Amino acid sequence: MASGFQRAKVQAMFDAFDADGNGCLDEDDFEALAARWGRMPRVAGDPELAQRVRSVMMGWWEHLSAVGETAGSGRVDMDALMAMVDRLPAMPWTVTATADTVFDAVDENADGRISRAEHQKLIDTWHGRRTPTQHVFDRLDQDGDGSLSRPEFAVLWTQFWISDDPAEPGNLMCGPLPPTA
């Protein structure tokens, strides 16, 4: 069962995904999320990547709605998202596949590395708005080389979605933690 720390961390993502602000997630919210990602420069210029991104985003809606749709309403609440988060440790390949797709979408110049600026675009795209990051990237860039490699990114992405340890840097992958975390 997810801790209070995980719930606070994931609540920020729930709020970002809830495009219409109605307190529930539905297919339209994930369509809006896929559309935001579709506007990323590399995604917009690569139809194959665009399809992959859309498939990943909508695939998560399918997983989520299968876990927690409320009585055929087509909507899920925060508790359903947390139930999905509780299942993620048993689905590491799905989390890693998402990390690979997000990496490709964010790696704007296709150099195999995520720069500070590219990471900022990831955060802004997830949240649907400019989101101050303070010194988040410095914590993520553990080797201090100024970028995140694909393997580093995958570890951090997995930590964000699965970790219950507030000290793990991946918890900052989608921006600063909320004050209550």
UniProtKB/TrEMBL annotation:
Domain of life the protein comes from: Bacteria
Protein name listed in UniProt: EF-hand domain-containing protein
Domain EF-hand residue range list: 5-40, 94-129, 134-163
InterPro entries assigned to the protein according to its UniProt record, in alphabetical order: EF-hand-dom_pair, EF_Hand_1_Ca_BS, EF_hand_dom
Pfam family membership, one: EF-hand_8
Organism encoding this protein: Streptomyces olivaceus
